[in-house]
């Protein structure tokens, strides 16, 4: 019997040791990811335009803490997704900047051929435009800007309209949530004030009861008056007062706990809406800079003009055939010089010939890359803020630490 008891005890100790090791590894992974995120934010030097309210997250019991951590993990997952999207676009812009450097490094006979082909493409394009007899407001510069995105311009216009409508909706949501939080805080302050009033009433009732007992005692010994009924009345008054005060105090505590949960929920929702606000605003700013428009209405107008211009272009097949031949030669030359995206330069031959135009192209790409870098930095800082909130919840509810780490670990495994 003792042998089996010893075996069971050893098995339990082994299971406890394995569980402790798993918890230690999970904590190390959590700390490593948090440190990596904070280091990225420090290197980028960016700051969020809107402050996240993780400091207002008020963990209650274990269930409430686990719910808050789950919300934070979901927010982190969304942030990481947005950062991946920005990273892909960032790599594309960086690749184009690298192509500019490779084009600048072309020299000798290859450079002369490159300029000759570029000039022929420009002349053929200009000749084709003269054939069109068009009445359009779109400029050649705008056509060159939109040419690389011809297949997706319609979707880009719709996307910009949707983003602007979504931005308006998000602004309304933020205002509503802010008002809701303010109202909840006002209610919370009122409950606290009511509780303080109850405390003062309790002190007053106690003082009154004591005073009445002293008065009755003085009257009893001084005048030998029967004080049984006054004593009983005073006791009844004390009982009623205590009951009322206790019931009101209990109601206030219940209401305060409920308000705390509502404030946590409103804060969590507001943080998620702010994340959406930042990403959507960054996307809008980037797309407007990318297509050099003020808003979706202007973009749609330019796009419609662009569609008409392209329709006219298709009417001149012979010119197009000649142009295609020269473009193929230019593409081959660019590929021979290891240009990764040669197709884009078919619509930017002026930049190949004119160094000033190439500077403008490089400047526009740098602006786009800077906006993407800022967007990624904002996501990193938002993620760091969420991780800090999780740390604070763990610190304030140590009894839930094991469950919280398990939740965080499960989210990282899923991602």
Please characterize this protein's 3D structure:
- With 415 residues, the protein is an all-alpha fold.
- It is built from 11 helices and no strands.
- The chain has helices spanning 2-44, 62-104, 108-131, 140-146, 153-223, 228-291, 296-313, 317-336, 349-353, 355-396, 401-414.
- α1 (2-44) crosses α11 (401-414).
- It is rod-shaped, with a radius of gyration of 36 Å.
- Mean pLDDT is 79; it is low at 1-6, 22-27 and 37-52.
Entry summary:
By secondary structure, this protein is mostly helical.
Considering the chains and any ligands shown, give keywords for the structure.
mainly alpha, disordered N terminus, 85% helix, 415 residues
Please outline the helices and strands.
Blueprint: H1 2-44, H2 62-104, H3 108-131, H4 140-146, H5 153-223, H6 228-291, H7 296-313, H8 317-336, H9 349-353, H10 355-396, H11 401-414
Helix pairs in contact: 1-10, 1-11, 2-6, 2-10, 2-11, 3-8, 5-6, 5-7, 6-10
By DSSP, the count of extended strands is 0
| C-alpha-based Rg, rounded | 36 Å
- State the shape: rod-shaped
Spatial gap, N to C terminus = 48 Å
Query: Beta-strand percentage?
Result: under 5%
Helix content: over 70%
Structural class: mainly alpha
Number of helices: 11
Low-confidence sequence ranges: 1-6, 22-27, 37-52
Largest beta-sheet characterization: none
The helix/strand order is HHHHHHHHHHH
User: What's the rounded overall pLDDT mean?
Assistant: 79
């Amino acid at each position: 019997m003792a042998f089996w008891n010893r075996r069971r005890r050893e098995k339990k100790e082994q299971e406890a040791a394995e569980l402790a090791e798993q918890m230690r590894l999970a904590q190390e992974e959590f700390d490593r990811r948090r440190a990596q995120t904070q280091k990225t934010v420090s290197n980028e030097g960016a700051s969020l335009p809107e402050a996240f309210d993780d400091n207002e997250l008020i963990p209650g019991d274990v269930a409430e803490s686990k719910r808050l951590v789950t919300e934070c993990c979901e927010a982190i997952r969304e942030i990481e997704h947005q950062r991946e999207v920005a990273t892909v676009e960032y790599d594309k812009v960086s690749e184009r900047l690298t192509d500019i450097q490779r084009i600048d490094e072309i020299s000798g006979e290859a450079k002369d051929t490159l300029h000759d082909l570029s000039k022929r493409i420009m002349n053929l394009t200009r000749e084709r435009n003269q054939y069109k007899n068009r009445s359009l407001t779109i400029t050649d510069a705008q056509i060159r800007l939109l040419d690389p995105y011809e297949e997706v311009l319609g979707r880009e216009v719709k996307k910009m309209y949707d983003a602007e409508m979504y931005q308006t909706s998000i602004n309304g949501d933020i205002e509503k949530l802010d008002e809701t939080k303010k109202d909840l805080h006002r209610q919370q302050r009122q409950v606290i004030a009511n509780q303080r009033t109850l405390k003062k009433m309790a002190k007053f009732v106690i003082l009154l009861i004591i005073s009445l007992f002293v008065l009755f005692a003085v009257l009893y010994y001084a005048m030998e008056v029967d004080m049984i009924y006054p004593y009983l009345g005073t006791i009844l008054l004390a009982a009623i007062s205590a009951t009322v005060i206790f019931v009101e105090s209990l109601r206030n505590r219940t209401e305060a706990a409920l308000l705390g949960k509502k404030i946590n929920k409103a804060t969590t929702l507001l943080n998620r809406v702010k994340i959406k606000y930042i990403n959507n605003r960054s996307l809008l700013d980037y797309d407007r800079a990318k297509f050099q428009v003020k808003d979706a209405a202007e973009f749609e107008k330019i796009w419609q003009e662009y569609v008409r211009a392209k329709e006219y272009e298709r009417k001149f097949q012979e010119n197009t055939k000649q142009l295609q031949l020269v473009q193929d030669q230019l593409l081959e030359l660019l590929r021979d010089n290891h240009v990764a995206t040669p197709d884009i330069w078919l619509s930017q031959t002026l930049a190949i010939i004119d160094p000033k135009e190439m500077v403008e192209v490089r400047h526009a790409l740098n602006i786009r890359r800077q906006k993407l870098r800022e967007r990624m930095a904002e996501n990193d800082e938002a993620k760091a803020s969420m991780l800090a909130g999780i740390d604070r919840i763990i610190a304030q509810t140590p009894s839930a630490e094991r469950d919280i780490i398990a939740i965080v670990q499960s989210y990282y495994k899923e991602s």
